[in-house]
Amino acid sequence: MDDQFDIGARLNAMRGAAGLSQRQLADRAGVPHAQISNVEKNKVSPSVSTLRKILSGLGVSMADFFEPERTLPTGPFFDADQLVDLTSKVAANAIGDGPGRMMFRQIGDARGHNLQILHEVYEPQADTGETLLQHASSEGGFVVEGELEVTVGDEVRVLKTGESYLFDSRIPHRFRNVSDSRTIVISACTPPYL
């Protein structure tokens, strides 16, 4: 597919521009060396959590990774088509259009406001990955539709429509849709993470 985003080529180019070997990036990101090689060769499609961990070794956000040239709308109001698509390219490469697909869309310029607000969609079986997320932020969210399993440290809970979460993101965490229906969440994170 010609219109599919080439995660491996983009990572290879950014790593090269940073003057890092695969091993150096792996050490910085805290991932196995082979993982960098496999992603760059498109042998594996990384989960959201794995890709974010790798990009942290480059000091790059997912928004910059996927759309570095994009001019973000300044607001204060945003039409639905002005939200910044952060992860559908990861999901399309990793999983396709079926079960397990997820999409995160950002409202405006998260860095400029030091606040990331996301519209998140988790299709059945969507999962941020077995590698738990962990970053220096605080985050919270509200389940608008469906159910979302949230793991924070040793605590796991399935949140239903109308329920919410708020925690210190330095605690390892994970999000999964273990239901048979789509889940929609509105979340916020400061400082921005994705």
TrEMBL record:
Signal peptide: none annotated. This is XRE family transcriptional regulator. Residues 11-65 form the HTH cro/C1-type domain. Keywords: DNA-binding. It holds the Pfam family HTH_3. InterPro entries: Cro/C1-type_HTH, Cupin_2, Lambda_DNA-bd_dom_sf, RmlC-like_jellyroll, RmlC_Cupin_sf, TransReg_Diox_bact_type. It comes from the Bacteria. The keyword Transport does not apply. Gene3D superfamilies: Jelly Rolls, lambda repressor-like DNA-binding domains. It comes from Pseudaminobacter salicylatoxidans. GO terms for molecular function: DNA binding; DNA-binding transcription factor activity. PANTHER family: HTH-TYPE TRANSCRIPTIONAL REGULATOR, HTH-TYPE TRANSCRIPTIONAL REGULATOR PUUR. GO terms for cellular component: cytosol.
